[in-house]
Amino acid sequence: MTGRRRPRRDDSSHPAIGGDWTDRKLEVLAKYLSSYTTALKDQPTASSPFIKGYIDAFAGTGYRTPREKSNSTVPLFPDLAAPEPQRLLEGSARLALKSKPPFDRCIFIERSADRCTELEGLKSEFPALSNAITVRRGEANAAVRALCSKDWRAHRAVLFLDAFGMQVEWETLVAVAKTKAIDLWLLFPLGMGVNRLLTRSGDIPDSWRRRLDILLGTTGWYDELYRSESSTDLFGEQSERLLKATTDTIGRYFIQRLKTIFAGVSAKPGVLRNSTNNPLYLLCFAVGNPRGSGVALRIADHLLKELH
Questions:
Q1: pLDDT for the residue numbered 229
Q2: 241: phi then psi, degrees, rounded to nearest 5
Q3: Model pTM?
Q4: SS3 82
Q5: Phi and psi of 123, rounded to 5°?
Q6: How far is C-alpha 24 from the chain's CA centre?
Q7: Cβ(93)–Cβ(68) under 8 Å?
Q8: Are 198 and 238 a contacting pair, CB within 8 Å?
Q9: What burial letters (b/e) apply to 102-128, b meaning 16+ CB within 10 Å?
């Protein structure tokens, strides 16, 4: 890595091929978007090609600056201040706008009025795409569900959900899957959220339980992520202890949940780790259209191999 210039926070250039592990994660999204628009450019509906869209539901400033506040019961964790995970969260808006062939529409959703103003600046930065850029101020789950309620027969889209905490709701993912037209890239808060709420004792506060219910779409997660183990001591006395699931088990459980609603799901998501090699997020991929799921999964699985 000696001699390589690390991209600055405000560097909007495309990540260099063969860069460090964070560069490769950004490359996954960039390469998928390019493959996606290329594959769809000549795919006709009954009378015209699909309208291709990109949706970023936690768009920030376009450079992924940390949120000062979170509506989740889980606060922002200091791990996110580290350069490596932060750089993954920078630039997805720009990657979408740089895709060749271009998207027909790019929708950036952000709750903050100030950040919406900064996102509007992308229209000046990418003047040829200014008419294709839409900035919507609002809560991400409500905004995505509203988009999903439209008629999607002539539309296809890639949706990137990269909340910092546990803001994404299961019902939002259900709405996305029901369109049968959206490919989803999702940062699942594995170590940053779920693992921290699953206490070793199994005694979980009600507010944390509700947050997990909303994220996972079921109250049945407890029995899946905790198990009892019996043991016998030297005197023949039996005892039981509660064992919490490993991060690997939590990840597999979430992937199985996604498979109950999407036409196809990558079985081996990418992993975003901190400097001590602990997993922060899973980079998950799911496809909504049954007819196109085979090709989409092959592309995503190939790209995600480098992140395992």
A1: 76
A2: -135, 155
A3: 0.81
A4: coil
A5: -65, -35
A6: 16
A7: no
A8: no
A9: bbbbbbbbbbbeebbebbeebbeebee
Q: State both tokens at 69.
A: 């506040």
Q: Any idea which of 159-163, 220-224, 262-266, 272-276 has the lowest mean pLDDT?
A: 272-276
- Distance CA(271)–CA(251), nearest Å, equals 10
φ, ψ (nearest 5 deg) of residue 302: -65, -45
Q: Average of pLDDT values for 215-226? A: 97
Element (H, E) at 49: none
Contact by Cβ (8 Å): 289, 45? no
pLDDT value of residue 280: 86
Cα Dmax for the chain: 79
Res. 142 pLDDT band, cuts 50 70 90:
very high
List the one residue out of 155, 157, 94, 162 whose CA is nearest residue 129. 94
The answer to whether 22 touches 85, Cβ cutoff 8 Å, is yes
Q: List the structure tokens of 243.
A: 């064992």
pLDDT digits (tens, 9 = 90+) for 159-175: 999 877 789 999 999 99
Any idea what DSSP says for residue 164? Answer: S
What is d(CA 219, CA 124) in angstroms, rounded to the nearest whole number?
47
Token reading at 31: 């390469």
* pLDDT > 70 in the chain, percent: 76
Question: Can you tell me the distance from the alpha carbon of 7 to that of 141, in angstroms, rounded to the nearest whole number?
Answer: 31
Give the whole-angstrom CA distance, residue 10 versus residue 98.
Answer: 16
Residue 61 sits at φ, ψ, to 5 deg, of -100, 0
